[in-house]
Amino acid sequence: MGLGTPEIILIALALLLIFGAKRIPEIARGLGKGMREFKDATKDIQRELTVDIDDRKTTYRPQPPPQAAPQPQAPPAQPPAEQPPAQPAQAAPAPDAAASGPTQAPDQPPQS
């Protein structure tokens, strides 16, 4: 939705009626001067930003990431070995101390 020629002519006529023919050139000069100053200011800001960005690009040196201590690697998981099915516990007969004879230490000679 831009301004077409008829709209611009209507605005110019309204300005002519409001301000008069003598003040229109003064207003146009002031408006042109203001636009020129605004344009110069935006160029200055853009130039400063460009210089700052270029400076940062030339002085920026990325630091290498900190080296973490090597982590011990876990051995690969092995499947569990197959075990025979569990059998019900059976009561083992208690050894009879009198029937087995005298006990002796392994480093002592046999007794007679």
What does this structure look like?
This protein has 112 residues and is mainly alpha-helical. The protein has a domain at 31-61. 49% of the residues lie in helices and 0% in strands. It has 3 helices and no strands. It has helices at 5-19, 24-59, 97-100. The chain starts with a helix and ends in a 12-residue tail after the last helix. The mean pLDDT is 78.
Q: What is the gist of this entry?
A:
The protein is an all-alpha fold and 112 residues long.
Task: Produce the secondary structure layout.
Elements: H1 5-19, H2 24-59, H3 97-100
The N- and C-terminal alpha carbons lie at a distance of: 126 Å
Order of helices and strands: HHH
User: Total number of β-strand segments?
Assistant: 0
Morphology call: rod-shaped
